[in-house]
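Thread: "does anyone have the structure for this chain?"

Original post by V.I.:
We have the sequence but no experimental structure in hand. Need at least a predicted one for the grant figures.
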Amino acid sequence: MSELTTAARPARSEACDPARVLRAVSQAPQFSWQRGWHIVRDGEDWLVLGSDDDLGRLTQAQLVSAGSAAQLLLLAREAQGRASSVVLLPKEDPHCVVALHDAGPSPSGRAEQLLQPPTAVPGRTLAPSDVRHLNLTAEAFGCELLWQDGSTPRARTPGLRRVSATADRRPLTTLISRGDVGRDWLQAGRAAAQCSLVAKRLGLALGFGVHPFNSWAAREEVRQLWKLSGWPQLQFTIQEIPAET
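Reply from O.Q.:
Generated one for you, tokens below.
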């Protein structure tokens, strides 16, 4: 579970249950064994702070994980009726990875639905409409999904055929960001968290395996191999659950 501390500044009138927030954040996909960051509540604002004085020491995997947690944090607040404005790596705070500033009341229905315990549907297979739904979800964070193993026409992405999904976990999807710096890594984490929740609400089981892109050399190699304009940041699979017999 994420570490939570409360700053000395008195809390204002926000009706927010910290326990519910942390339960939501605990669902965030994690891509690094060493967290390197923690969550702080500062009045009505919430901050993801680096555990080290030098944020430059945080790895790609740690920042992807921090972005994932920040997205769940945003949704948890929205589910409790509070909107947030998100600032990535704010210049005014050299220790802050993500700042979520209170932006007033917000409708809670969509966030509540996403955070409900998911139900995977036996026999549910990935449909073209699911691919479009997940693509749009990633695009909202400046990212795109490249689908392998038959979900994308061969003529459009011939290079992706060089990497296959395993027989029992199909298809394999690579999340691509526009750049390859801290902000891009955070956005990739936010996109991964949102895609995970959306997939579950669609009745699909989404899984993150061993993180293959935690080094610049690996990202650059795949980028060149696939002739990408963006940068590969992580991969996930859609588990098609067998129908009950």
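V.I.: this helps a lot. The chain has two domains: 4-115, 128-239.
O.Q.: and Helices lie at 18-25, 60-79, 109-115, 128-139, 182-201, 216-226.
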